[in-house]
Structure formats: structure tokens, C-alpha cells
Amino acid sequence: MAHEAAYHPHHETSVWPFPIGIGTLLLPVAFTMFFHYGWQMPGLVAGAVGLVLILVGAAGWASEHFRTEKEEGYGWTGILSFILSEIVIFGTIFAFFWMSRTAHADKWADWVPEGISLGMAGLLTLILWASSFTIFKAELSLEEDGDRGKALTWTFITFLLGGLFVVLHVSEWIHLWGAG
Predict the structure, then answer these.
(1) I want to staple 150 with a disulfide (CB 3.0 to 4.6 A). Which of 28, 48, 102, 141 is the partner?
(2) What stretch of H or E contains 150?
């Protein structure tokens, strides 16, 4: 009994998401200061500090990742926390958008300019969501099943969706550019 070993899963902790989060918070604040309030210098400083924090945080996190010898996997907790953080980030962006639009309710009726296709925007959004799902399936098939062929298939589908997204996005921008 003295020689038995217990398995203790690896818990990866890092300080680098904190500067990335602060930098991400500063960017919309900087845009608001610069464009809405007309505070150019404070807006530029806040934006520069935000970008530096994001870049330093990303570089630190990447170097920390590449120094790790063996990766234990992230599991469902990691995936769930990532998805929840994305919901919070994009929820905040959408809340900021809606709050800024309601502050200018008199201009709300003219919000969708001529030539903007909401159907195309919806299609592009669906393609992005689908590509997130396919890359998740690729990782899952590799981690849980060890099936490299299935992982490559899902990754190929992800690349196809990404290519379709880029082609449709470029064609939409060319159309809008031509419309003026």
C-alpha cells in the first residue's frame, strides 16, 4: 500500500489571460473615447495600451504553451469555460452595440444602409458557427477516439468552410465597393 500511486490530473494555470482580458476591455473603451466623446489623445492611449496588453498576453501565453512538454488535454471543463467566455465577450459587444444604438434612436430606422444584405450576413455567420463545430469535432475525434483519419476529414471540412467564408466575404465587399 505504501508504493501505490494516485493519478492527479494536471491543472494548467496561467496569468496571461488577465492582461489579454484587460486589453480586450480597453479597446471598446478607447473607441468610445475617440469616436463618441471626441477625446482623441486619451482614446489613442487607451487603445495603444489595450493592444500592447493583448500582444504581450498572447506572446506570454504562447511561450508558456510551447514550453510545456506534455499536454494532458483540456477536457469538457476547458471547452465549456472557453465557450462561456466567448458568450460573455460577444454578449458584451452586442450589449454595447444595442446601448449605443438606443442612445441614437432617431437614427435607428435608417440603420441598415442600402446594399447591405442581411441574408448574406446571416449566411456568413452560419458558416463561421459551422466551422467552429467542425474544428471541435476534429479535436474531439483525435483526443477521444484517436482516429486521425476522421480528424483530418473534419479539419478539411473546416478549411472548406473557411475558404467559402472568405470567398463570400470578398464577393460581398466587392459588391459593396461597386455600389459606393
Answers:
(1) 141
(2) helix 148-179
Residue closest to 31 by CA, chosen among 105, 96, 89: 96
Q: How far apart are CA 9 and CA 13, in angstroms?
A: 13
Residues 12 and 92 placed together within one structural domain of the fold: yes
How far is residue 132's CA from residue 139's CA, in Å, rounded to a whole number? Answer: 11
Specify the pLDDT at position 10: 60
Q: Determine contact, residues 20/54, Cβ cutoff 8 Å.
A: yes
Domain interval for residue 56: 8-96
End-to-end CA distance of the chain: 78
Whether this prediction's pTM lies above 0.85 is answered by: no
* Same-domain status, 14 and 85: yes
pLDDT higher at 82 or 108: 82
Distance CA 83, CA 79 (A): 6
Nearest to 151 by CA among 164, 141, 136: 141
